Structure formats: C-alpha cells, structure tokens
C-alpha cells in the first residue's frame, strides 16, 4: 500500500463520513498505547483511481475519477461512504454494522497508519463477560454521552447566571447569592426544608428560590430549564458524598 | 451594731470596689487574663452582649500605656459607622436593595451619640448606571453624619468612573482624623479585558458584576496609585496609627471570586513600617477578619445580599457567621460601627440584622486568636 493510498484513505474517512467515522470508532476497544496499530492491505487501483477501504479491512471500492493529489467534495465523499456501506451490507445481508463490529470476530478495524493509533481489540479474554449491550460500549460512546451531559450542564450554568432566563422581575439571578453554585448543598436532599414546610427535593428548593428571592414564576418540575439548573448544581458538587437529610 | 452588720448590697459594693482597685494594680498580662476570664464568665451566663461589656473600656487605659512604637500619649478614641455594598438597582426595578440601604441609613441615624463620620464601603449601584448612582447619592444624603465615600467595582466599570467622580470626587484620597491618618483607596482597578473582546460598556459592567465568570481581571490598586500611596505616606510618621479603607480586601482570600487584590503584597509592604494599621474593606458581604503582620483586616457587611464563605483561603482568624436564611431577606446583612481606641487600634462591631451583634476586638486579631474570641457559628459553610 503506497503512502498516497494511505493518505487518501484518511481523507476519505475523515472528509466523507462522520457517520462512517463514528461507526468505525465504535468498534475500537481500549488498548494500551504500546500495542502496534493494525494497518490494512488496501488492494491496488485497477482503473487509475484511488481505492478507499472501509475500516473493517475488507470492503473497498475504487473511486475512478480521483487522481492522486485530488480531494473530494463533501458530496462526493458522502457518496463514496454510502457506497462502501452499501457494499458491506450486500456482503452481510440482514446484519447490522454496529453489532457486527462490536462482536469479537468483527473487531479488526483501525484508521490507517498515520492517524491516531488505536490498536484493535485483543482476542477476548474468557475472564471478562462479552456480548451484551453494556460490554459493547466503546470509548467513543462515552465521549459522545459525556459531551451531551456537559452541554446540558452548560445550559444550566448559563440559565443560573441569567436573571432574564430565570424569569426574574427584579434583576436577580442565582449566581448573585450562589457563585459557582456554592451553598446549594444538592447532596443533602431530600430533607425537610423549613422554607417550604415539607420534605423537599433539590428541584423544589430551586423553584422556591425562583419564586421568592428571584421573584420569577416557578418552573414546572419537568421544565427543561429547571432540569438543566438541577444538573448544573449537581455537577458543581461532584465527588461530595451524599448525605440526605443534612441541615 | 451598725458597724458589725452590713447589708448584702453594702458588702457587694465593697467587694466590687476592692476588685476594681485590685485590677488597677495588676501588671498588664495578669490584668488581661482576669479580664478575659470575667468576660468569658459573663458571656457564658448570657448576661450582656459582648460589645456592651464595660470593663473593656478600662482595658484600653491599661493597654495603651505599654503600647509599643509610639512616643505619643495616644489618640483620643472615636467612633465611625459604615454602610457598604448596597448594590442598588433603580427602585422601579428592584425595591429590595433600596430598602436595605435605607434601613442601614436609619440604623446609623439612630446611633446616639452620632459617629464622627460614616464610611460608605463601595458598590453603591448595581450596574454602574448614572441613574443608579444618583439614586444612591440621594439615599446616602439622608445620613446625618458626614459621609466618606469609597468606590466599588459595580460603581466604576460602566463608564470607568466618570459619573462617580462627578458626584463624589476623586476615588482615592486621605485625611487626618484625631491623630489617625486615614487613607481611602480605589482598590478595584482591573487590567483591560474589554478592548480586545470589543465589549460594550454594558457588557463590560455585566461581566464585572458576575463574581464567578473568571473573565474579568483580578482587582488591583495598580502601579500609579501605589506610587500615590507611597508619596502620601512619606509625610506620615511611623508612630501614627493608620486606617486604610479599601473595597477589595488588600490580601488574597479567594481568587476565583475576586476576593483578592493582585498587588496585595506590595501594598502591605508600603504599610509595613507602621505598627498600627487597620484595613476596613468591603466586597465580601460576610463577617470576615484577618491579621497579616502588623495589619488588622475587617470586612464589612452588605445591605443587599450575603455571600457564602469561599471554599478555600478563609483566613484562620475568621470566625464564620451562621449561614443566611434565604427566607429572611435581612439575614446575614447589616451595617456596623468601628471604635478606634486610644491606642489607635480599631474594634469592629458587626450590627447583623435579625441576629445578635458580634464585636471583633483588635486584641483578638493581634493576639492571633488567644483573647476575646468571637462566638462560634452553629452553621458554618460547607
């Protein structure tokens, strides 16, 4: 495999297919950095174009009009990516890519040498359970989910600091009394909250503050704003042991 | 017969006179021990609030004779009050903060005798708007005693001090008062963070108004004003007690919330030749005190909202106030009075609204916490 082909393989996979890249990434197992990266044997181009290979190391197509040194437009790259997946699907009728790649037999994928080195999964150990959904989660999954969660927390942070978003009629936002969400004690709920005269969850106390010091309208418990505020407050207390009922 | 039988009252008065005469003959160290012990006994019985305990006045006389570093007979004692961190929006938007400021004004006006002057501790306005500053001036004009104004960041960063200086004059100045040299600093200068980001004045002010966004620069006195301070102190003999008024604390408490003065060490170095320095600062909205070398620090309360104690950096000498009850709009807030003794050192009386007052004595700080420890909280920050 020439280095040009490797480069175009990279280009193909990076430009073309966010979906393709994600699919490939889902197949990576966590490997120590010292294991050598697997490189795939990309077949030669028969018609003077460039061969693009799927990260399973087997499926490839030749893009005839793509000469060495050329880059594809996004539309072209998407078409190449779609063709590759279609080809794989034809070779694996009735199967699903995610499941096939997650299974031990399908774990032979990597980007070409030159990109981030992630070695494929080692032969599965008999000492560790395999095959179920949770065991198939990959680092990329965790990254995506963490990004979603952090985004939710960030939404909560921006509402926390914004009197208008909270609906305050007197220009007060949560951070004025609670910089960095200090003195909110989310780890102490549920507890009897004297200001509400009943046992409260964190959500109830947030609503009380919105109604009283902030003089806004209390949010519905399922309001995404309230949920985001709650998320931000909890996030600021990561690692603090739970201690419900503490005053 | 009359000589042999003394009434209970007579015996009590004779005993009391004996004790008081005996106190005058004690050496200083023993006197202070007796004082602390009896004050403790009285407080334990809950008989009187500490700041009204009369023997403290007698202690002043005993203490200042052996006060170090001064050849002078001492300064006449005096009292001044403070109102700080009022953070007023226009009353059409928010009445709560205006009510707080007015309550403090009424507290100070009710003092009898009136204090020598009233220090305004900074952050008169909330968002630095000219109308807010005008409104604030109107509220403070109700004070009977003369007012010494100090600027805070909420007053400054909308128009970089234009309206403040028009209404109240230069942001830093000094004067002498009954043998004490008083310095008012502008200690909330910030290195320019707004030009590169192309912020409007309102945006700049909004960022400065937020405690925890980390975008604004840390407070500083700055090179120019430190040079002014040096020139000002050149005329002041080191035996003179100093009172320094500052909005930022002039020490480093918690960087993330700008409870901080970036050039604190350099300012403290300028003050080091003076054995008696007391800094009164605003900005922190909590009962807060510290001793660094020769300098005692007292933080003023706010009239607008209280702040929790920072997660780290709290001076070890600070005895926290109980957590504020959010249900009570006055809790954790207040104003106060500072009593400057014959020795030129200052005690701070925290007039906490809806709570018992707390007095912090200069000797508590200067003894590094051994004497006159203020009452402990039941609900510290966590």
Helix proportion range of chain B: 25-40%
Strand-residue proportion of chain B: 15-25%
CATH homology-level superfamily of the largest domain in chain B = Metallo-dependent phosphatases
Give me the Rg of chain A, rounded.
26 Å
Residue stretches of chain A low in confidence (pLDDT < 50, at least 5 long) are 7-18, 25-32, 106-117
Instruction: Tell me the series of helices and strands of chain B, N- to C-terminal.
Output: HHHEHEHEHHEEHHEHEEEEEEH
Biggest interface, and residues per chain? A-B, 19 and 26 residues
- How large, in whole angstroms, is the Cα Rg of chain B? 22 Å
Alpha-carbon distance between the two ends of chain B = 67 Å
Shape of chain A: elongated
- CATH class descriptor of the largest domain in chain B: Alpha Beta
Query: What percentage of amino acids of chain A are in beta strands?
Result: 5-15%
Can you tell me the CATH topology of the largest domain in chain B?
A: Purple Acid Phosphatase, chain A, domain 2
- The tally of strands of chain B reads 12
Mean residue pLDDT of chain B: 90
Low-confidence stretches of chain B: 48-72
Category from helices, strands and their pairing of chain B:
alpha/beta
Q: Please, how many helices of chain A?
A: 9
**Neighbour order of strands in the largest sheet of chain A:** 1-2
| Helix proportion of chain A | 25-40%
- Largest pleated sheet of chain A: 2 strands, antiparallel
Short description:
Chain A has nine helices and four strands.
Describe this structure in words.
The complex is a heterodimer of chains A (about 250) and B (about 375). Chain A is built from 9 helices and 4 strands, in the order ααββαααααββαα. By secondary structure, chain A is mainly alpha-helical. Chain A has 2 domains: about 120 residues, no CATH class; about 90 residues, Cytochrome c-like domain (Cytochrome Bc1 Complex, Chain D, domain 2), CATH 1.10.760.10. In chain A, the strands form 2 sheets. Chain A has a two-stranded antiparallel sheet. Chain A has a two-stranded antiparallel sheet with strand order 3-4. In chain A, strand 3 and strand 4 form a beta hairpin. The longest helix of chain B has 18 residues. Chain B has 2 domains: about 60 residues, no CATH class; about 290 residues, Metallo-dependent phosphatases (Purple Acid Phosphatase, chain A, domain 2, 4-Layer Sandwich), CATH 3.60.21.10. Chain B is built from 11 helices and 12 strands. In chain B, strand 6, helix 10 and strand 7 form a beta-alpha-beta unit. Chains A and B meet through helix 7 of A and loops of B.
């Amino acid at each position: 495999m020439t280095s040009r082909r490797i480069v175009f393989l990279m280009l193909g996979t990076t430009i073309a297919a966010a979906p393709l890249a994600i699919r490939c990434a889902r197949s990576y197992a966590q490997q120590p950095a010292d294991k050598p990266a697997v490189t795939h044997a990309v077949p030669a181009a028969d018609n003077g174009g460039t061969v693009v290979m799927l990260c399973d190391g087997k499926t490839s197509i030749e893009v005839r009009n793509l000469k060495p040194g050329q880059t594809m437009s996004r539309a072209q790259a998407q078409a190449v990516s779609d063709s590759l997946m279609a080809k794989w699907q034809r070779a694996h009728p009735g199967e699903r890519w995610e499941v096939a790649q997650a299974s031990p037999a399908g774990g032979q994928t990597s980007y070409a040498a030159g990109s981030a080195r992630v070695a494929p999964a080692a032969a599965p150990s008999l000492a560790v359970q395999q095959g179920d959904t949770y065991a198939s989660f990959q680092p990329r999954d965790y990254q995506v989910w963490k990004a979603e969660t952090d985004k939710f927390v960030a939404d909560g942070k921006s509402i926390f600091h914004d009197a208008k978003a909270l609906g305050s009629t007197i220009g007060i936002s949560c951070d004025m009394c609670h910089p960095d969400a200090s003195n909110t004690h989310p780890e102490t709920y549920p507890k009897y909250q004297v200001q509400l005269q009943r046992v409260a969850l964190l959500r109830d106390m947030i609503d009380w503050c919105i109604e009283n010091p902030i003089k806004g309208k209390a949010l519905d418990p399922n309001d995404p704003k309230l949920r985001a505020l709650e998320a931000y407050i909890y996030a600021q207390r990561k690692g603090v042991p739970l201690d419900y009922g503490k005053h | 017969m009359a000589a042999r039988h003394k009434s209970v009252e007579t015996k009590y008065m004779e005993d009391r006179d004996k004790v008081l005469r005996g106190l005058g003959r004690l050496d200083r160290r023993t006197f202070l021990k007796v004082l602390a012990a009896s004050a403790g006994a009285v407080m334990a019985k809950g008989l009187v609030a500490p700041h009204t305990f009369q023997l403290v006045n007698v202690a002043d006389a005993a203490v200042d004779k052996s006060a170090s570093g001064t050849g002078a007979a001492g300064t006449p004692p005096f009292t001044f009050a403070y109102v700080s961190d009022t953070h007023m929006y226009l009353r059409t938007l928010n009445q709560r903060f205006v009510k707080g400021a007015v309550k403090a004004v009424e507290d100070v006006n009710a003092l009898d005798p009136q204090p020598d002057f009233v220090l305004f501790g900074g952050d008169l306005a909330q968002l630095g708007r000219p109308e807010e500053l005008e409104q604030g001036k109107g509220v403070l004009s109700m004070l009977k005693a003369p007012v010494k104004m100090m600027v805070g960041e909420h007053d400054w960063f909308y128009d970089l001090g234009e309206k403040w200086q028009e209404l109240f004059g230069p942001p830093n100045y000094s004067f002498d008062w009954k043998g004490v040299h008083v310095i008012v600093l502008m200690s909330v200068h910030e290195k320019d963070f707004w030009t590169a980001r192309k912020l409007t004045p309102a945006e700049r002010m909004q960022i400065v108004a937020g405690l925890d966004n980390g975008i604004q620069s840390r407070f500083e006195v700055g090179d120019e004003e430190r040079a002014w301070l040096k020139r000002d102190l050149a005329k002041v003999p080191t035996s003179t007690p100093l009172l320094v008024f500052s909005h930022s604390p002039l020490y480093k408490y918690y960087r993330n919330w700008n409870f901080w003065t970036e050039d604190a060490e350099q300012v403290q170095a300028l003050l080091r030749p003076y054995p008696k320095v007391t800094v009164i600062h605003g900005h922190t909205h909590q009962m807060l005190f510290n001793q660094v070398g020769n300098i005692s620090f007292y933080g003023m309360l706010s009239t607008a909202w209280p702040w929790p104690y920072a997660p780290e950096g709290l001076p070890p000498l600070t005895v926290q106030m109980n957590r504020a009850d959010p249900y009570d709009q006055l809790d954790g807030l207040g104003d106060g009075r500072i009593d400057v003794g014959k020795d030129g050192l200052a005690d701070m009386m925290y007039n906490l609204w809806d709570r018992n007052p707390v007095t912090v004595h200069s000797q508590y700080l200067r003894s590094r916490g051994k004497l006159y420890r203020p009452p402990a909280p039941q609900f510290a920050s966590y």
